[in-house]
Specification:
There is one protein chain. This protein is an alpha+beta fold. The chain is 50% helix and 10% strand. The protein has 25 helices and twelve strands. It has helices at residues 2-8, 67-87, 108-113, 163-172, 192-208, 230-246, 253-264, 283-290, 295-299, 315-327, 332-343, 348-352, 358-370, 395-399, 401-410, 423-453, 458-470, 474-487, 492-508, 514-531, 536-547, 555-567, 572-584, 588-600, 608-616; strands at 48-55, 59-63, 100-105, 134-137, 144-148, 152-158, 218-220, 223-228, 267-269, 273-276, 376-379, 389-394. Strands 4-5-3-2-1-12 form a six-stranded mixed β-sheet, with helices on both faces. The protein has a three-stranded antiparallel β-sheet with strand order 6-8-7. A hairpin with a 3-residue loop joins strand 1 and strand 2. The two termini are 16 Å apart. The relative contact order is 0.14.
Length: 631
């Protein structure tokens, strides 16, 4: 276990900002300005749906499947969290991060119909055959993930011939299963025993073609496939989320993909034995089918710009490279040095020098392909077994499972074309922006219809209020927040959106009353913060009330952003906002530390261009600053 701790140690971003403070403004609760007084709540208690929610210490998992399976997966994710914490030396560390919200969707077509756009997370880019159903969005108020709860298959090779076709051809030639002389009656009339033997031999041949080990391939009709279990997608996604949450840094994407694959093969034996690091199913078949990938292209990040339809880069390649570096006593310190350099903002070529002669590294990696791969087992303390809290969602709550998943992507609108852009570039920007706005408006219409249908459901009104506020629609947000407030007057989320809607309305209102209206809005937001000091939404709303007014946020607002980032460390939007505020106060070193994962990290988020522009204005790292990460 020490090998894992040495790789991850020193990568946790420690931002040199003062301790988070609560916004120090008047918390007297004003009258609900702009809230209609004649709200009528229609509807009765919603009936139970087929959706259930299981909550543990670190995740909330929703599923439309069986309760027993949901409970088992929730327990295993908690065990995986313990495993990762033990390996990285933080098993008993305090944890104030917002829980990851995972949605397990019944089948692949349903998942694909959701059209979930991964704006802040990407895989590979892998060959098209390895495009699997998973969604991840490190939203500012808490990361969300979605995947299917059914196993999938990847067809790594399709053939025009099937076992039945070959069987028919051989029988027509009068050949028996052993390839010798024809059996009596085999060509005319057929021999059932020979036919059965031949069919079994052919299926075995199709199933084992290209294999180097047992249990490596699944046979399909006219194709060679490998299985990808729903569990492996879940564990891989959580492993990435763990690393980005508890050790946020500017990682190369291949490393995050490989790290995920190492833990995708988690096996829980009994209640106390956790096994990880075994080869993924289909490893030999995939590597034999797709061949080697130029190591230099990976370490230089060149593979990120290549056409994934032509490349041979797969999740198995990412696993092999990462697994080898982790389990090699000589290469592991080099990996640690390499990651520290990438985390400090060094370019790919400079960081890759940590591995020395890349040709020698490639030779060792090729030898590792044919070698027996190590794996590890960790004992899980029985006392840590956690029973998930399970509840059944109402029909109204279930109706908005989809909307909450879509929220982050639907309200993110592409920026306008930069000044001086060429006409064709400007048209592309304009088209993308118009399409996103039209998609958002259609989505909002659907939310309104559902909110009207489930008018007595608090979650429905809260989601609509958030969607309208994040779309800068002050009046619509205020109306939805008023409905939520009528259902739950003391709910901090309802008050947060009401306060933010008041701030948006103040900007559009009379200039003479703007200052007073903004102050009233901020009092509502602060009151929500006092109701739940651990909630992220009021902290973000308080800072936004200054941003929309074009005013520099006070220290309290910056400290609130700091706390929000500590709650959701992987959120690029919060990091960019905090880094911008720190840079404006001339705290450039702190700003650089905060914005690096967004500007030069693994993923192309909508916040990346602004983060890169900010980073370009900040001083570079001093060589001495990475000494704590040296071997």
């Amino acid at each position: 276990m020490r090998r894992w701790a040495t790789v991850c140690a020193g990568l946790l971003v420690a931002v040199p900002v003062g301790a988070a403070q609560r916004p120090g403004v008047d918390t007297a609760r004003p009258a609900a300005a702009g809230v209609p007084s004649d709200i009528v709540v229609v509807g009765t208690r919603n009936r139970p749906s087929g959706w259930r929610e299981a909550e543990t210490g670190h995740v909330v998992i929703l599923s439309d499947g069986a309760e027993a399976e949901l409970v088992r997966l929730a327990r295993n994710v908690e065990r995986l969290h313990f495993l990762l914490s033990a390996l990285t030396g933080r098993a008993d560390a305090p944890d104030d991060t917002v829980k990851l919200r995972i949605t397990m969707i019944g089948d692949v077509p349903t998942f694909q119909a959701l059209d979930l756009r991964n704006l802040r997370w990407q895989q590979g880019p892998f060959n098209d055959l390895f495009t699997l159903s998973r969604f991840y969005d490190p939203r500012s108020d808490g990361a969300v993930m979605a995947t299917t709860r059914v196993d999938q298959q990847i067809a790594i090779e399709r053939t025009t011939a099937t076992a039945a076709q070959v069987l028919s051809t051989l029988q027509a030639q009068g050949l028996n299963a052993g390839g010798g002389a024809p059996s009596p009656g085999s060509a005319a009339g057929g021999n059932p025993a020979d036919a059965a033997a031949l069919q079994g031999a052919l299926i075995g041949s199709f199933a084992t073609a290209g294999m180097r080990g047992p249990r490596d391939l699944t046979v399909g009709t006219g194709e060679r496939t490998i299985p990808v279990s729903a569990e492996s997608l879940l564990y891989a996604g959580y492993a990435q989320h763990y690393l980005l949450t508890y050790f946020p840094a500017a990682y190369p994407r291949w490393y995050l993909d490989g790290f995920a694959q190492i833990f995708a093969s988690l096996v829980v034996r009994g209640d106390t034995v956790l096994e990880f690091g075994r080869s993924p199913k289909g490893t030999s078949a995939v590597l034999n089918a797709f061949g080697a990938f130029p190591l230099a292209d990976v370490l230089s990040d060149k593979y990120l710009t290549e056409n994934p339809r032509k490349t041979g880069w797969t999740p198995i390649h990412a696993w092999l490279l990462t697994h080898f570096l982790f389990f090699s006593d000589t290469r592991r310190p080099q990996l640690r040095r390499y990651l520290a350099l990438r985390a400090s903002g060094a370019d790919a070529a400079t960081a890759a020098a940590a591995f020395g002669d890349q040709r020698q590294l490639a030779r060792e990696l090729r030898a590792y392909f044919g070698a027996r791969k190590p794996y590890e087992q960790v004992t899980y303390p029985a006392a840590r077994n956690e029973e998930p809290a399970v509840r059944r969602l109402t029909e109204g709550q279930a109706a908005f499972v989809r909307g909450r998943l879509e929220l982050g992507a639907r309200v993110t609108i592409p920026a306008a074309a930069p000044a001086g852009a060429a006409p064709d570039v400007a048209r592309r920007y304009a088209t993308a922006r118009a399409d996103a706005l039209a998609s958002r408006d259609r989505w909002l219409e659907r939310l309104h219809r559902d909110a009207d249908r489930f008018s007595a459901d608090l979650d429905a009104q809260l989601l609509l209020a958030e969607a309208e506020c994040r779309s800068d629609h002050a009046a619509a947000c205020l109306a939805a927040a008023a409905r939520a407030t009528a259902l739950a007057p003391d709910d901090d989320r309802a008050q947060t959106w009401r306060g933010l809607a008041m701030a948006l309305a103040a900007i559009d209102g009379p200039a003479a009353t703007r200052a007073a209206d903004l102050a009233a809005a901020r009092r509502v937001i602060v009151a929500a913060n006092r109701r739940d000091p651990s909630a992220v939404e009021p902290l973000l709303a308080y800072h936004r009330s200054f941003a929309v007014a074009g005013e520099p946020g006070p220290v309290a607002a910056i400290d609130g952003l700091q706390q929000a980032m500590e709650g959701v460390p992987a959120a690029p939007e919060t990091r960019l906002q905090l880094a911008t505020a720190l840079a404006a106060r001339d705290r450039r070193d702190a700003a650089r530390t905060v914005v690096l994962p967004v500007a030069v990290g693994a993923y192309d988020s909508p916040e990346r261009p602004a983060a890169q522009a900010l980073l370009a204005r900040l001083p570079g790292p001093a060589a001495a600053k990475s000494q704590e990460a040296l071997p």
